[in-house]
Amino acid sequence: MEVQVAPLRAWDDFFPGSDRFARPDFKDISKWNNRVVNNLLYYQTNYLMVAAAVVSIVGFLSPLNMLIGGTVVVLVFLGFVWVSHNKDILRRLKKQYPTTFVVVIMLSSYFLISYLGDVMVFMFGITLPLLLMFVHASLRLRNIKNKLENKMEGIGLKKTPMGIILDALEQQEDGINKLADYISKVKE
């Protein structure tokens, strides 16, 4: 299936008034994870724009260090994904504790970048955009359009870059399970 870029959501939908934001239920981790994953899928182009702005500013101030930092993070991410696909115990850990998996990737990247160069580039150019995405995705309540778009991607009607990344992190359920859930809800 061909990869499609998700549309840029209206900024008043992306960052509306405080009535569309709420603290996640920290006691129900699966519900919080579901909110984060769905918001990452729905607002992925907006997140890309925000991240591109931050990366551009940091890249302008320190281009070589930003290139090195970005390369290190991508290589560490690909290495961890490859290892976790080949080792069952790591695959289970990644699926059960996705945040821990991402933190391990970021810490590994941090230590490699601190060895190679400028840590501030890592903090502002790589970690800050990821943190902004995570905070927004955690706090932003979903709407009907968000839920519908995510169902379409979940059942395989659309494939987007964020969907591919989340699949690599094993944060999306199998398309068949989502299709079955969707069909059962429609029947009700």
UniProtKB/TrEMBL annotation:
InterPro entries: Prenylated_rab_accept_PRA1 (IPR004895). It is found in: Cell membrane; Cytoplasm, Cytoskeleton; Endoplasmic reticulum membrane; Membrane. It is a multi-pass membrane protein. The keyword Transcription does not apply. GO terms for cellular component: cytoskeleton; endoplasmic reticulum membrane; plasma membrane. The chain crosses the membrane at residues 40-61, 67-85, 97-113, 119-139. Keywords: Acetylation, Cell membrane, Cytoplasm, Cytoskeleton, Endoplasmic reticulum, Membrane, Transmembrane, Transmembrane helix. Its main location: membrane. The keyword Membrane applies. GO terms for biological process: negative regulation of transport. PANTHER family: PRA1 FAMILY PROTEIN 3, PRA1 PROTEIN. Belongs to the PRA1 family. This is PRA1 family protein. It comes from Corythaeola cristata. The lineage of its organism: Eukaryota, Metazoa, Chordata, Craniata, Vertebrata.
